[in-house]
Structure formats: structure tokens, C-alpha cells
Design goal:
Elements lengths: L1 H20 L12 E2 L2 E5 L2 E9 L2 E10 L2 H4 L3 E7 L8 E8 L2 E12 L11 E12 L2 E12 L13 E3 L2 E3 L2 E8 L4 E7 L4 E9 L6 H6 L3 E3 L2 E9 L1
Antiparallel strand pairs: 1-3, 2-3, 3-4, 4-5, 5-6, 6-7, 7-8, 8-9, 9-10, 10-12, 11-12, 12-13, 13-14, 14-16, 15-16
């Protein structure tokens, strides 16, 4: 009886181990946030086609789950893609832990033109970007972010885009961006419920561009013009 039990326990353990080793990658992706056209491979070495985070398109990436963090009660997954024509490289990690989650060392360029309409935005470029949320609140943030704007936007001359460093503010992730002339500001605020607000402030009287700015949706405020966009990604 003891031998039969040992054989049964051993076989069960092997089946469980095999299930873990060969677990499909698609079974561990949070489908309430991430969507993709196709997910291939196992959790330790897989690929995702046309990955989207909410409404933000990331494109094709490789993905793998890390083993050692599992021993510490954390689920950590790496995403990567080399540079390619029309598809800049992606690298970074996402970690789920008790009480929160984090994004670590993200370097990527994502299109936000559709997400932020009618704001004059094109891409967000993340460099070594990290943010940690604990108990539903932003706990720490670092790295740099650049917002690029399309050429020919009324009243704006932003050849180098707007640059800033993320920080936590009132429990939200705040990305304050500033142009090289310091006359244009964009504040992007992101909550843990995937809500966001983006506020563009253009300083100066801009008399010659006033009509064009009004057509673009800007409202006159003290010291300049402002445009606000709110939504969920």
C-alpha cells in the first residue's frame, strides 16, 4: 500500500511539475488589462503578437516569467523586443506582489495620438522608467519620459518634444513634461484604475495664434492657453 501511495504521489508530483514547466504563456496574462492578437509559447519563453495595454499599442514582444521571484512570492515577467523598422525596441519588467505591482526599467516608445485626441501628442518615449503601486497608490517613480508632438501644430514649436521625470503625487502617477523653451507644459496624471488626465498649458499671449489655438480646443486662461483631456486607457 505504501509503495502504491509513493508511486501515486510521485506521479502526481511529476504531472504538476510538467504542468508548471509547460504552462502556456496566455494563461498568466491578465486579460482585463492586456490584449493580444496571438500568444505563443510557454511562460518561461513565449511571444506576444500585437500586444496592447488597455488602449495603448505596444506591438510584438517576447515575454518570459522569472523563476526566482516566485520563491519570494512575486510574479515577475520580462518583455523585450529589438529595434526594427517602424518598431522601436522594448525592454522592461512587470512585477505583481502582495498588495501591489510595479513596472521596472521600461524603455519603450508608444503611440498616444489616438489616446490623447485632441491633444497635440504623437509618442511617449520611456527611458529606464519605473513605478511602483502599493495598496492602490503610487509609492515611488523614477526614470525619464519624453512626449513628441506632430509638426505643424498651431502655436507650438516642439522639435525636441517635452521632457520630464515621473513622480508620485496624491497617490497618482504624475508625469510633468516641459518644453525646451519652458513655455509649454504637459501634465499627465494616471490613477491605478487606468484613468488619466492630460493638461496642456501654453504660456504667453499668443495673439497671432489665438484663433488657431481656439480651433484646436484650447481655452484662454491667466497667462496663456490650456487644453485638458480625460479618459481611461
Amino acid at each position: 500500500m505504501n509503495r502504491q501511495r509513493s508511486i501515486f504521489v510521485g506521479a502526481a508530483a511529476l504531472l504538476i511539475l510538467a504542468a508548471i514547466i509547460f504552462m502556456p504563456l496566455r494563461t498568466v496574462l491578465p486579460d482585463n488589462v492586456l490584449t493580444a492578437r496571438k500568444v505563443e509559447g510557454i511562460v518561461w519563453d513565449g511571444s506576444i503578437r500585437d500586444l496592447q495595454i488597455g488602449r495603448v499599442a505596444v506591438g510584438d514582444v517576447n515575454a518570459r516569467l522569472h523563476f526566482l521571484p516566485l520563491l519570494l512570492g512575486r510574479a515577475q515577467m520580462s518583455f523585450s523586443r529589438g529595434d526594427a523598422p517602424f518598431a522601436p525596441g522594448v525592454s522592461g519588467k512587470v512585477t505583481r506582489r502582495p498588495g501591489g505591482y510595479s513596472i521596472e526599467g521600461l524603455t519603450a516608445t508608444v503611440s498616444v495620438a489616438t489616446l490623447f485626441q485632441p491633444l497635440p501628442a504623437e509618442n511617449l518615449q520611456f527611458t529606464d522608467f519605473s513605478v511602483r503601486f502599493r495598496s492602490g497608490r503610487c509609492a515611488e517613480a523614477s526614470g525619464s519620459v519624453r512626449l513628441t508632438a506632430p509638426a505643424g501644430v498651431a502655436g507650438l514649436d516642439l522639435p525636441n518634444g517635452l521632457l520630464g521625470k515621473p513622480r508620485c503625487d496624491g497617490g497618482d502617477l504624475l508625469i510633468p513634461l516641459l518644453s525646451q523653451s519652458a513655455m509649454e507644459h504637459v501634465d499627465i496624471r494616471i490613477g491605478t484604475d487606468r484613468s488619466y488626465s492630460a493638461t496642456v498649458l501654453i504660456e504667453g499671449d499668443r495673439v497671432e495664434q489665438a484663433a488657431m489655438l481656439a480651433l484646436a480646443g484650447f481655452q484662454p486662461v491667466a497667462g496663456g492657453y490650456r487644453l485638458v483631456r480625460k479618459g481611461r486607457f
